[in-house]
């Protein structure tokens, strides 16, 4: 198993970069969707609705890839291939939804968005890396 290096975790945690989640549809098509996320204990964590396309797909096949990039020169990216585990634990869901909201919406709106997204019917998705690819300062 590959793990997130300190450099990769720092890059993933910087600012409000949105992750692009790749997953597999029921008919085998690859799909990509943006997600808000945090790094927690060496895992990438986000939440999604249990009945969404992502929720159904991850329940069926936990294999995912996530790419986060810096679109400004000199350009960098981190790709995490891994396995998703799902939880509906209400306390964990509220806590993580609030932490994710703080990253993207700011501390002043974290509780508001955490309560909106940390409700029954939502899932906590934890992606454990199996392979990590990094490319920093590509244009240097």
Automatic annotation (TrEMBL):
Origin: domain of life: Bacteria
Pfam families in the cross-refs: PNPOx_N (PF01243)
UniProt keyword list: Oxidoreductase
Coiled coil start-end: none
Cellular-component GO terms for this entry: cytosol
Record carries keyword Oxidoreductase: yes
One of the record's GO molecular function terms: oxidoreductase activity, acting on the CH-CH group of donors
Domain Pyridoxamine 5'-phosphate oxidase N-terminal: 5-133
Keyword Chloroplast: no
UniProt-recorded name of the protein: F420-dependent protein
């Amino acid at each position: 198993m590959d793990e997130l290096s300190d450099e990769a975790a720092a890059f993933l945690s910087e600012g409000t970069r949105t992750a692009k989640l790749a997953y597999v549809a029921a008919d085998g098509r690859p799909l990509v969707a943006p997600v808000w996320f945090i790094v927690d204990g060496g895992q990438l964590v986000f939440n999604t609705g249990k009945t969404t396309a992502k929720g159904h797909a991850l329940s069926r096949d936990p294999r995912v890839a996530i790419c986060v990039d810096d679109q400004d020169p000199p350009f960098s990216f981190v790709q995490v291939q891994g396995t998703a585990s799902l939880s509906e634990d209400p306390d964990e869901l509220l806590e993580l939804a609030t932490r994710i909201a703080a990253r993207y919406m700011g501390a002043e709106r974290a509780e508001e968005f955490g309560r909106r997204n940390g409700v029954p019917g939502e899932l906590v998705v934890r992606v454990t890396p199996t392979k990590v690819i990094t490319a920093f300062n590509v244009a240097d």
